[in-house]
Input
Amino acid sequence: MYAVSKQIHPPTGIEHCMYCHFFSTEERNVVIAGASQLQVYRLFPETEGSTGKGNEKQAESRQKKHKLECLDNFFLFGNIMSMQSVRLAGSSRDSLLMSFKDAKLSLIEYDPGTHGLKTASLHYFEGEDLKGGFQHQFHIPTIRVDPDGRCAAMLIYGTQIAVLPFRRETSTEDQQNISVSKSHSLTSYIIDARKLDEKVTHIIDMQFLPGYYEPTLFILYEPLRTWAGRVAVRQDTCNIVAISINLQQKANPIIWSLGNLPFDCIQVHAVPKPIGGVLIFAVNSLLYLNQSVPPYGVSLNSITDNSTAFPLKIQEGVKIALDCVQTAFIGNDRLVLSLKGGELYVLTLMVDGMRSVRSFNFDKAAASVLTTCMCMCEDGYLFLGSRLGNSLLLKYIEKPPDGADGKKDEPVKKSTEEPPVKKKRLDTMGDWMASDVSKIDDLDELEVYGSEMQAGTQITSYTFEVCDSIMNIGPCGQTVMGEPAFLSEEFGHIVDPDIELVTTSGYGKNGALSVLQRTIRPQVVTTFELPGCQDMWTVVAPATITEKPDSSEENKEGEEKTTSATSEDKTEADTSRHAFLILSREDSSMILQTAQEIMELDHSGFSTQAPTIFAGNIGNDKYILQVSPKGVRLLEGVKQLQHIPMDIGSPIVYCSVADPFAILFSEEGQVMMLHLRKDSFGTGTRLAVIKPQVSQKSKVLVMCTYKDVSGMFTTSSMEEEPPPPTAEPKTPKVETPSFSFNKSSTVDDEDELLYGDTDTSIFSPDESKDTGGSKVSSSTEGDKVQKREIVSTYWCAIYRENGTLEIYSLPDFKLVFHVKMFPIGHKVLVDVGHLVESSSIDKSDSFDKLVELPKVKELLIVGMGNKNSRPFLMARVNHELLIYEAFSYHSTAEHHLKVRFKKISHDMILKQKRMKGKKKAEIDEDEDDMMSDRLVSRLRHFEDVSGYGGVFVCGPYPHWIFMTARGSLRIHPMGIDGSVTCFAPFHNVNCPKGFLYFNRQGELRIAVLPTHLSYDAPWPVRKVPLRCTPHFIAYHPDSKTYTVVTSTQEPCSKIMRIKDEDKEIEEIKRGDRYVYPFVEKFSLQLFSPVSWEAIPNTRFDMEEFEHITSVKTVHLRCEGTVSGIKGYIAVGTNYNYGEEVTSRGRMLIFDIIEVVPEPGQPLTKNKMKLLYDKEQKGPVTALTTVEGFLVSAIGQKIYIWQFKDNNDLSAVAFIDIQVYSHHLATIKNLIMVADVMKSITVLRYQQDMKVLSQVSRDVKDLEIYSADFLVDNTQLGFLVSDRNKNFILQMYQPEARESHGGQRLVRKADFNVGSHVNTFFRIKCKVTDPSTERKASAAIEKKHVTFYATLDGGIGFILPIAEKVYRRLLMLQNVLTIQTPHLAGLNPKTFRALVVDSRTLMNTCKNILDGDLIWRFLQLSAVEKNELARRIGTSHDQIVDDLMEIDRITAHF
Output
């Protein structure tokens, strides 16, 4: 059995974060990593108006809130284990050091020429002699970098330290000797910590200390280990040692050591100068060590009384434990601590005159997300990365230190009187969507204002507020499929089931349900049958000028006077409403007026006798431009102002507008320009026709115009800066100072470029609407406040027959950018215009004809993202969509654009599906016929559809491309209504911020985007906060409700003991400072998918110490229904009393019944009715159903029960099995039992004989996380995921020799996913395809696709494929592994290889393809694709068809 596995939703949890100059020299980036994903963000100020409350200073600080903007993200073939940044000698940017599993280290840099990453050096320390004989390593390779950048150290295999020296800046006389080797680093070497003067083993943590002459590494280790249960006999086992690293001699003398530290030390932090020294965090204490002064430690709770003899002072008013703590310094003497419950504390080190720490001050500031990593961003900002909740960007503000407000004393009094209540309130203020973490006043200490003032350290308390958050749907514990509550009835006829995914996310107070829909399902307002329409446009018309002056015009033309403030408010909404809808047919046009109703206009200034080529607004939405094949009309509302007949030898086929310019383009490639100008007579405005001087050496095929407000498109040189090192950041905002035109360094034609001739241009550009805040003051890190203007500039892109793409400036048509062989799809588009001008052109033309170029059908340059500041170039080439993003690049060519374009990778396959028996050429014709001869633009830009801007891709497989101010390009398919011929945004009274589109049947749909989902995510998602940990979820199809199991944590002071055969609970009382353990309290709750609220009165609480282990929707036999089967909810539980009490459990069966809802509460129509509740002989660990019977795993037995009509269970059969079965899956009469240690067993239940028997089992031990089936027609595979993040596929093949007559399962395939998989779900393949009417073949109808969700927040699928396809794609995979460069030098083959704990006597089987690697084929250029396809003996189309087939049959949800 062969299969392909592909990740279709990237991991969203975050495990590492850094703040460094990674992409740019001007500003720093937040670099975050989670699993195999690396993302680079920048902070940009989002200015808000001052609130007017409080003093001036507060208003000032509140004014600027920073947000995160994603600059780029990268996928690696390996999980990032640890990450640090370092500034290498001679570099103006920081490089990243990343470590990967076992002992690999990569140094990665930003490459300004390609706007991507390049690997600077690779280090590999996986020699057998270092591993100490172990096959499997549990140690994480941890990187630490010397604060002065002299070297880096990586801890590998727990006791070895690999040292990586960096070359330093050298003086001139040394340089002659060194000029031979250019590398950044000297040779690395390894220190064996066991061979130092003190035997250092079991290293817990290490840090470099600042301020030493040589790099000094501080190591915390535990030579003789102990644990909590042995503390009575062995305690204080941790030691520290500091070694000085001499890089030349490779000598490592010990300069400081100390022993007998508490056994629970977990982390070390070096304290920056001027204080110096180190902080050691232990679970129950906090220590400060410095070489010159005696150690100082405090106890944080009363557990230290018995667990350590180390001298500790009691820290008053604090009762916390520091396990899982994350910390970041926000000053020389202040740190922020995030505890395991999400509480944020500010720790201040109190220093005396001798600069030694004399005491600690803890100040509880807020309750926030459960943090996995944190870093301080620029002053006043803190980034908290989390894999259990949404990652947050927090702003912290110092509260004024003097208690002058008078209000300050109240919280202090309160917190001393009733700490528990106060603490609880803060904890419930968790955040899921970055809501209410802000401004929690809580001062713990009053001594702040006492004698401490003279000590030199000032204590301030802080408030934290959330500025931004990054959505995380992980860890996905259990995922189920359900039906969406809302689906327009137009889509009711669909053959394939319409499903959404619901997954449990998060933990503790970050717990939530995530509702995911991969495709967009529009909410249809109404549908019209309008056959024969080929294209459509919506246009805005100004309201009747007398009553409602057009707000966008007021500031430009002084003629209109505003009547009153109210009318002004009204116009804001009215002017943007679309007034007319223009539909174009084969030989005529139809004009519809869109007000309350949509009516056809018979008499208007619009042309209706000919098809319309283009209709749109011009002159800041005041006028309408309508272009027909033979002429152009300018209208104001329905009134025609100007009609220009165009006779340029052939009909006009295309028009593109960049207000106030329009470019027309005829069938024969003639280009004309229209310019909207003021004039002194008549209507006051007119269109001037200009025939631009464009060379006709090669026919113009496609063109488009672009109005740039990002300031990136510029031909003037940047500020007087040195060349290349200062490549600009990729996405300069309006605020980045270095992009605007510097008037002093302008070239001669600059004024023409910037349209200084305002008398001819009707609107001077710097007043136009787009540059809303044209004067923006930007505060960079150096707080240099500069006022700049960014002016709109106008450009036109032209593609010619010989394969060149040219960009011209408007209106003077100067060539500023020139790329050859554009349709091939280069990784980076580099301007070669200045070379072309100097060389002879004829040679290049003849050369280009040798290569058959793909056909470019359409171009679009569009600004997206925050304030449209990120220009994207999109091109439809054959069936593909090329997307390029512009980035600034300092080139030396005069008068040429200072940009390059980088290709954005995406997985869209937009091709129409090939039907059997049709030749390729026919398909191409079909696809073009569908659109007739005219150039119908399929890339439709929209500014505001439900608040989102982006591009809609029409065609056989429609997609939405969104980009918000967050800066990530989000691509969502919309296959639900088949292919879409044309699209237009539509804002109307009855359809606010909606859109229109035509489907294949010629139906015009008026629709809106459902707003309950957030589309700025890898998949459209809705997160439902639960504020407690979700464990299981089950969908009940009969009542269309979800059963969710959640638990809350409660401190526990009871122990269950057995006395004289009876269980009794003993209360244990400890002191006030004791931290009690937490116990989970479970409950069951019904949720409705209509509003995603809990249905009132359906909560069912479990008993104390009772854990729910399994919840399933089971279909049991029931005589009351027609089918004889009814769906119930079955729950299995276990009483967790500890190791001395025998384990028991309960089995519960609920029916979800319909009742009369309470008035005003429509959700209460469903209730849970408990039908069966009995204690069992052992713990009930898993449940499922087979042929209408209930199957349960109780202890070490599997039972089969029949559910009787008197609501009782009678046992039918049982069988003994392995250690602990935690998962059961059934198909027909087969039961797969997954064991926590002993792999899987396959059982069969024969109903006629009432016999349950073992068919086969896997004899190798395997720690299984989850299991499901892989179904391909008649073949059945057993798929499991294990603790080492592997997928293993077993099959039952009794005829195979190694199966011993069928007693053993035969292993058929294995694959490493790179993330833990806890949940599988299976569904039959999609049989319909949006691009065709026909259904898929019978082979596909009987095939199932198995999806999985990971604990990192990723989703993927595994799909069985035919051997022929497998062989072809396997060859492709092998070629891609070798031929394409991989980021950080990682090898995909190693990443996907099976990971085992110990060497086994069997070969790995592979047989599962790596979809993530194969899909990279789509991102190669045309030349590379053809070359690779030729090398493996197939064609490029064949491979794309295989990938498309896999893509379309798995396009669920």
Summary: Residues 1363-1379 form the longest helix (17 residues). The radius of gyration is 34 Å. The first strand starts at residue 2 and ends at 9.
